[in-house]
Amino acid sequence: MQIPKQSVLLRIFVGEEDRDDGRPLYEAIVLKAREMHLAGATVLRGGLGYGQSSRLHTTKILRLSEDLPLVVEIVDSEEKINAFLPYLETVMTSGLVTLEKVQVLHYGSPRA
């Protein structure tokens, strides 16, 4: 699979406890991205963060949180990312979604 040098980075900020039909939302997003043949998706877990509610979510022992911040990152062509956005509208009830243009320098394994 090739992705254009000029691509788009889709960043989706959700909470670990966010759900879609009983399944973790971040997992549903990654599986849908795979189903739609997007180039790849990565889920990053934050150790500390807050969102619209200003409620602090942390991994600190004395303040155990069951809703740590997560970021799902997906890079692909603008067309494929734009085709994915309507799906997000159906599953996102809170969180943040951002887009930015990126230049892809390398994707995949080196040639033999």
From TrEMBL:
Record's protein name: Uncharacterized protein
Native source organism of the sequence: Pseudaminobacter salicylatoxidans
PANTHER family referenced in this protein's UniProt entry, alphabetically: UPF0166 PROTEIN TM_0021
Database matches in InterPro entries: N-reg_PII-like_a/b, N-reg_PII/ATP_PRibTrfase_C, UPF0166
Family, similarity comment: Belongs to the UPF0166 family.
Gene3D superfamilies xrefs: 3.30.70.120
